[in-house]
Write a structure and sequence with these properties.
Strand content of chain A: over 45%
Radius of gyration of chain B: 13 Å
Number of strands of chain A: 11
Helix content of chain A: under 10%
Strand content of chain B: over 45%
Order of helices and strands of chain A: EEEEEEEEEEE
Shape of chain A: globular
Largest interface: A-B, 24 and 26 residues
Distance between the termini of chain B: 36 Å
Largest sheet of chain B: 7 strands, mixed
Order of helices and strands of chain B: EEEEEEEEEEE
Largest sheet of chain A: 6 strands, mixed
Number of strands of chain B: 11
Oligomer: heterodimer
Chain lengths: 110, 111
């Protein structure tokens, strides 16, 4: 069964304290793995797409990496404005369906 | 401005009263999709459409209908809403199923 598990559910960091969010997945043929950011009351906002193991993408303080079983979203020296829920999703190659994890709620304190 | 527009943003209705949530995108995307978001369960795909007149079931299609008569529009229809369909709904569009643009969400309450 295709599924995505994100951990931790919630993460509280001090400003400047680097950390990583985990996304573990099982899917029948991975077409792509996606990271989104979601602010309260808003729709998810696209961050990264990763297609193959070993691939990495960076944007400002965020870096996403991919292995055959999981992806990590590394946050370097976070700021309070990085506080949000981060969602991971995988796209199944066979059926073009998307499966989302339940997200990691990040809170960065000044 | 590239956007996905959902209407209404908030809706309270009674059990059994048919309703439609509209979704429109201005990016000429082929792929459109509907999700529901519930606490602890994350986003779950209801239906998706690869192109005009092509729709398919996602993970939780029961109790929902969709249609794709035009490329830009992808309405979500609840023929007989029930309280377990109370949720936050999102429409999304993308080019060939790649990174998606999401709408602002529709918060539906069925009493």
């Amino acid at each position: 069964e295709d599924q995505v598990t994100q951990s931790p559910e919630a993460l509280r960091l001090q400003e400047g304290e680097s950390s990583s969010l985990n996304c573990s997945y099982t899917v029948s043929g991975l077409r792509g793995l996606f990271w989104y950011r979601q602010d309260p009351g808003k729709g998810p906002e696209f961050l990264f797409t990763l297609y193959s193991a070993g691939e990495e993408k960076e944007k400002e303080r965020l870096k996403a990496t991919l292995t055959k079983k999981e992806s990590f979203l590394h946050i370097t020296a976070p700021k309070p404005e990085d506080s949000a829920t981060y969602l991971c999703a995988v796209q199944s190659h066979n059926f073009n369906k998307f499966y989302f994890g339940s997200g990691t709620k990040l809170n960065v304190k000044p | 401005e590239a956007q996905v527009t959902q209407n209404p943003r908030y809706l309270i209705t009674v059990t059994g009263k048919k309703l439609t949530v509209t979704c429109s995108q201005n990016m000429n995307h082929e792929y459109m999709s509907w999700y529901r978001q519930d606490p602890g369960l994350g986003l779950r795909q209801i239906y998706y459409s690869m192109n005009v007149e092509v729709t398919d079931k996602g993970d939780v299609p029961e109790g929902y209908k969709v249609s794709r008569k035009e490329k830009r529009n992808f309405p979500l229809i609840l023929e007989s809403p029930s309280p377990n369909q109370t949720s936050l709904y999102f429409c999304a569009s993308s080019f060939r199923g790649a990174e998606a643009f999401f709408g602002q969400g529709t918060r539906l309450t069925v009493v």
